[in-house]
Design goal:
This protein has helices at 8-20, 74-77, 80-88, 109-118, 173-176, 208-223, 229-244, 252-264, 269-283; strands spanning 25-29, 33-34, 91-94, 101-106, 123-126, 131-136, 142-146, 149-152, 158-159, 169-170. By secondary structure, the protein is of the alpha+beta class. The strands form 2 sheets. Strands 4, 5, 6, 7, 8 and 10 form a 6-stranded mixed beta sheet that branches.
């Protein structure tokens, strides 16, 4: 589908109309790409713009930083600095996440056929190669989630090609699932667990339930780690050994559970063994 080239004033008019609806917009240059950073912002030395609706640490008012330059402020859109960009603009882009939207970019007839069979109907916009399906809701963006399918929402931009047709549908789980990576299979422990105070003796603290609760809490702590996994694993091992390391109640089954939880978070058997050994050394066991 071929679209006529619009003059500068028309691109700006479209941008202002979208901004008035709360859709953050920015100009695109030829090739459907944003304008590059100015010399003051080259290589992001200015600190960038973390917020798509306001100018963050960067005090430059030029349309820099790609999707993060998108704004709903008409004073910025019509400023002298942005006028130079509109003069050379070849299109308008918008930040879907900033407008509370997710765009499923379908780049081929096969991709559209897949969407027809697997996704709920929603507002559709014709593009030069396929369709944009718009859903109400925000999610992480990702490219090539399947052949001919990209997801554009948070921290991404989409080219404006028209309002589309059909009512907006709430973002379905079927779309969210497209960016969820399958967890890596847990590898069996391939090393011998370093010797420690294990043997299955009676836990003298309160009851056998106390030991089970301690192991379960350590597993939960490791599983819930979203960052610093190495440190979290070591701290969990240290906590278990500090409480139960002297009474001989830990068994190989307990340590295997802890190792399995760590490996499910991406730790290697070697990392697990090192963390266990370091915890034993720290406690003098």
């Amino acid at each position: 589908m071929t679209r006529p080239t619009l003059i500068r004033g028309e691109w700006l008019s479209i941008a202002l109309s979208l901004a008035a609806l709360g859709v953050p917009v920015l100009p695109l240059r030829a090739g459907k790409v944003p304008f590059g950073n100015c010399r003051r912002c080259a290589n992001n030395v200015c600190g960038g713009r973390p917020n798509m609706k306001t100018v963050g640490p960067c005090i430059c008012l030029a349309p820099c930083h790609g999707w993060a330059a998108a704004t709903t402020d008409p004073d910025i859109l019509t400023s002298r600095v942005w006028a130079r960009a509109w003069r050379d603009a070849a299109g308008v882009a918008y930040h879907p996440g900033g407008a509370g939207l997710t765009v499923v970019d379908l780049d081929s007839a096969d991709a559209i056929a897949w969407a027809d069979a697997n996704l709920p109907a929603t507002r559709a916009v014709r593009t030069t190669r396929g369709e944009h399906w718009l859903y109400q809701g925000v999610m992480p963006s990702a490219n090539a989630v399947r052949p001919g399918v990209d997801i554009k929402s948070a921290m991404a931009y989409a080219r404006w090609v028209g309002p589309g047709t059909g009512p907006l549908t709430a973002l379905p789980d079927a779309v969210r699932a497209l960016v969820v990576k399958e967890p890596a299979p847990v590898r069996p422990v391939a090393v011998t667990v370093p010797p420690g105070p294990t043997g299955g003796g009676r836990c003298p603290h309160r009851s056998p339930v106390y030991l089970e609760r301690g192991i379960a809490m350590a597993e939960q702590r490791i599983t819930a780690a979203s960052c610093a996994v190495h440190t979290t694993v070591y701290a969990a091992f240290l906590a278990v050994l500090a409480t139960h390391g002297h009474c001989g109640c830990l068994t190989e089954a307990h340590t295997a559970r802890l190792f399995a939880a760590a490996q499910a978070k991406g730790e290697t058997p070697r990392h697990c063994a090192d963390a266990w050994t370091n915890a034993l050394t720290k406690l003098g066991l």
